[in-house]
């Protein structure tokens, strides 16, 4: 049995009934316990609102308990709830989610105790092999000491922990439209920002699509695509709201809309949160708090970090890289262009809700509207990601290098190839997709005219 169709670099993900089913999930639960040595230890398992998640939770629990894991089923959870539970309880865990993927998908995100990620480099390949062996044998072999199965609710503790990190009780009143996209933010938003479990905050929440529905009847739960933000943008303007928040299906990413209905870039949010975390860390005695940013985040981020007395560290794109560097550097915060935000106070894991709380605190702690507050964090013009379908991606990059190489352009290959003007007026990155025939362009410049010129020039060479 070959599971390579569903085992990816950072998680397990596939089409339900085709590349992932309950039999596979039971084998993965058993393999998870074996590979990580979890016999006799707590193993947490939960899942999102997808129709297949309850069946998969039960199957994983059977497999894990059969091999001696003491399973605690934590039910419906966001992905950052899993990270909270793995961190606070010092336990390994799994959650069933396919994040922003369509309804026919489901998958598994795995974490070690302390919310450390499990990737192909840290055990996922071994889990795949062990699961394949159980599937080939036809069943999971029972351990000498079978584990227990119990239930635990972590939502209230998760909400209380987030509130302990950002105090919103004293901000000015804000009207906040939240688009949960029928995903898990429909459950976590009332718990954290509302008064369903904790005292009320000075926030008026206007809910959009809070009903948990893994068939996504209103729009795909992927706020990275502009068309999926339209309902939120319209609602913010119609309600005269101060801010809009959009979460993806498993609520580990958060996108922000200003009072005019315009998106605030994840780079600007990274800068805003970085400023708050640097100030807090310096006040606690850190000389030079470290902030992580990936290489296609705006150059405004490292400039702001240095200005505020922090030290920026540039990394490759991808959460496993970010989390590893967060741990190595002892970084206080990290941000990505994809709206993943990582916090040292959250076990170096990503949480969209905590990032949203920082933005609400910054907005509610002063009188400017978000459009004005956010403008200072976006001094440059960004292209966004532009994909070109190219068979020979290496040849396309070589053509661009030949055209741009020279004393006035710095070139590095940290992740793809980045070209930067010596005078700081522009930069762009070309990254080949690992799974699709795409070459991805991301660029930034001091003004729209410069960006348009560079973008059009590079794309013409790439697509020649």
Please describe the structure with a list of short key phrases separated by commas or semicolons.
Alpha-D-Glucose-1,6-Bisphosphate, Chain A, domain 3; single chain; seven-stranded mixed beta sheet; 4 domains; alpha/beta
Structural write-up:
The protein is of the alpha/beta class and 464 residues long. The protein folds into 4 domains: 12-153, 3-Layer(aba) Sandwich (Alpha-D-Glucose-1,6-Bisphosphate, Chain A, domain 3); 157-262, 3-Layer(aba) Sandwich (Alpha-D-Glucose-1,6-Bisphosphate, Chain A, domain 3), CATH 3.40.120.10; 266-375, Alpha-D-Glucose-1,6-Bisphosphate, subunit A, domain 3 (Alpha-D-Glucose-1,6-Bisphosphate, Chain A, domain 3, 3-Layer(aba) Sandwich), CATH 3.40.120; 381-462, 2-Layer Sandwich (TATA-Binding Protein), CATH 3.30.310.50. The chain contains 14 helices and 23 strands. It has helices at 22-36, 53-66, 79-88, 124-137, 155-165, 185-192, 230-238, 266-283, 300-307, 319-329, 352-364, 370-375, 393-404, 448-462, and strands at residues 12-15, 42-47, 70-76, 92-96, 105-112, 116-117, 149-151, 174-179, 203-208, 243-247, 254-257, 263-264, 290-294, 311-315, 333-335, 341-343, 349-350, 381-382, 386-389, 409-412, 417-421, 426-432, 438-445. Helix 1 crosses helix 4. The model has no long low-confidence stretch (mean pLDDT 97).
């Amino acid at each position: 049995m070959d599971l390579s169709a569903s085992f990816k670099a950072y998680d397990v993900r596939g089409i339900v009934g085709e590349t992932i089913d309950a039999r596979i999930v039971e084998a993965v639960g058993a393999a998870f316990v074996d590979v990580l040595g979890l016999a006799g230890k707590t193993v947490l398992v939960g899942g999102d609102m997808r129709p297949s998640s309850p069946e998969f939770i039960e199957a994983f629990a059977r497999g894990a308990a059969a091999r001696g894991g003491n399973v605690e089923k934590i039910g419906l959870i966001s992905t950052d709830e899993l990270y909270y539970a793995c961190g606070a309880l010092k336990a390994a865990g799994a959650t069933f989610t396919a994040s922003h993927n369509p309804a026919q998908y489901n998958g598994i995100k795995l974490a070690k105790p302390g919310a450390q990620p499990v990737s192909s480099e840290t055990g996922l390949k071994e889990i795949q092999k062990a699961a394949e062996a159980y599937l080939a044998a036809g069943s999971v072999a029972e351990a000498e000491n079978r584990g227990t199965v119990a239930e635990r609710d972590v939502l209230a503790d998760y909400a209380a922990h987030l509130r302990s990190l950002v105090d919103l009780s004293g901000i000015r009143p804000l009207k906040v439209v939240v688009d949960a996209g029928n995903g898990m933010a429909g459950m976590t938003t009332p718990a954290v920002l509302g008064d369903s479990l904790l005292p009320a905050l000075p926030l008026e929440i206007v809910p959009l699509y809070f009903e948990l529905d893994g068939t996504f009847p209103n729009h795909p739960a992927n706020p990275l695509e502009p068309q999926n933000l339209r309902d939120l943008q319209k609602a913010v303007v119609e309600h005269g709201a101060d801010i809009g928040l959009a979460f993806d299906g498993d609520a580990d990413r958060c996108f922000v809309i200003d009072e005019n209905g315009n998106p605030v870039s994840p780079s600007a949010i990274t800068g805003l949160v970085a400023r708050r975390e640097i100030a807090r860390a310096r006040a606690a005695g850190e000389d030079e708090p470290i902030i992580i940013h990936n290489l296609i985040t705006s150059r405004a981020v490292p400039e702001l970090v240095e200005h505020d007395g922090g030290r920026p560290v540039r990394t490759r794109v991808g959460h496993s890289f970010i989390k590893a560097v967060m741990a190595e550097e002892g970084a206080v915060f990290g941000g990505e262009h994809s709206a993943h935000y990582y916090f040292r106070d959250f076990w170096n894991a990503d949480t969209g809700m905590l990032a949203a709380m920082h933005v609400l605190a910054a907005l509610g702690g002063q009188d400017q509207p978000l459009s004005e507050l956010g403008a200072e964090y976006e001094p440059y013009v960004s292209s966004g990601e532009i994909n070109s379908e190219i068979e020979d991606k290496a040849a396309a990059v070589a053509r661009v290098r030949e055209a741009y190489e020279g004393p006035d352009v710095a070139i590095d290959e940290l992740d793809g190839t980045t070209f930067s003007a010596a005078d700081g007026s522009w930069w762009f990155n070309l990254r080949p997709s690992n799974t699709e025939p795409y070459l991805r362009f991301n660029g930034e410049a001091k003004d729209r005219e410069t960006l348009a010129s560079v973008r059009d020039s590079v794309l013409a060479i790439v697509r020649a």
